[in-house]
Amino acid sequence: MRMADISQTQAMTAATQTIHRHYQRLLATRRLYSLLALAGVLVVLVFALLFANDASSGKFIERLPYLFDFIKNFVPDDPFEIVRAMFDLPSPYADGSFKYDYEVGRHYLFGTGLYAPEYFYEMLVTLNIAFASTLIGGLFAFLFCFLAASNLGVARPLRWGIRRLLELMRAFPEIVLAGMMAAVLSLGPIAAIFAVSVHTVGALGKMFFEVVENADMKPDDGLRAVGANWFERVRFAIVPQVMPNFVSYFLLRTEINVRASTIIGAVGGGGIGEVFRQSIGRDHAAKTYAIVILLFLTIVAIDQLSGWLRRRLVGNAAFQFGA
């Protein structure tokens, strides 16, 4: 081997060693930062637990060993009581109390002997709140998103105002809005629909205008070149591109609103959440477990249906990691 080749090999080896040392230093620094971040999280967690303990008059940490005692002691008389409670069937344990009055909750249909079980009916009320809220919120979000997008030539003050309005509408949780509207509209599904709709406008509006801003503007440029006005450009150049993603976000928001409607029901918004609060507050184990099972099955069914529809619209690639 010639001397020049040996010198070049030694130089490359030295350079490689230098790069390796730099890499080791960077790796050590990264590990140090990770450990410091983890330590910071642990410190915050400890202080949070101490604060919770003080706020609970010193009983939080003391009662932690008994965390699951409620579930252990909260059991029905027999497993079939859950089925009887779910379908409003007479109970052999009936003693005239509210605990076993399953038949009282029946909703008879059209004056006949056919009935809808109470919890199925209340679940339908909750789904109605969620679907109505998503439709109302989706409609207004669709109208606002084009005015909030920065690539459609909307006047800056108007765009700024629409974005701030959307931020305000999603700033408050649905349960806070429901509490505010209950003072105006009284308790019930109307206040729940209003609260969920307002939050849906803010959340979907942001998602929608971000989709619009990522749309291909070449069709818009073509329509602008032939003299199309703003509405025509939005209708024929932007909407066809963004509609699949809009529908996907709409379905995703429907799933979220079903859960939100259940929570709002627990504070007087009607539906399955309200009867759940009553049953668990009265220590009615069979009714509570029947509602929990019905909720679980309903949400799983909605999630699966929504996921299937979204895959049909945007394709499986959108659900794959790194796609």
Structure, explained:
It is a multi-pass membrane protein. The chain is an all-alpha fold. It folds into 2 domains: 3-61; 116-319, MetI-like (MetI-like fold, Orthogonal Bundle). 75% of the residues lie in helices and 1% in strands. It contains 12 helices and 2 strands, in the order ααααββαααααααα. The protein has helices spanning 3-55, 60-63, 69-73, 80-87, 118-148, 156-171, 174-185, 189-213, 218-225, 230-269, 272-281, 285-314, and strands at 107-108, 115-116. A two-stranded antiparallel sheet has the order 1-2. α5 packs parallel to α8 (189-213), α9 (218-225) packs across α10 (230-269) and α10 (230-269) runs parallel beside α11 (272-281).
Characteristic terms for this protein:
MetI-like fold; 323 residues; mainly alpha
**CATH class call of the largest domain:** Mainly Alpha
Could you say which overall geometry the principal axes of the C-alpha atoms support?
extended
CATH superfamily of the largest domain: MetI-like
User: What is the chain-wise order of helices and strands?
Assistant: HHHHEEHHHHHHHH
Query: How is the CATH topology of the largest domain named?
Result: MetI-like fold
* Average pLDDT over all residues: 85
Structural class: mainly alpha
Largest sheet: 2 strands, antiparallel
Query: Number of DSSP strands?
Result: 2
Biggest sheet strand line-up: 1-2
Low-confidence stretches: none
Compute the number of helices: 12
- CATH-defined architecture of the largest domain: Orthogonal Bundle
Please state the CA-atom Rg, rounded to the nearest Å.
Answer: 29 Å
Share of residues in strands: under 5%
Residue share in helix:
over 70%
Domains (count): 2
Query: What is the distance, rounded to the nearest whole angstrom, between the alpha carbons of the first and last residues?
Result: 49 Å
Organism: Devosia limi DSM 17137
Domain ABC transmembrane type-1: 123-306
Keywords: Cell membrane, Membrane, Transmembrane, Transmembrane helix, Transport
Main location: membrane
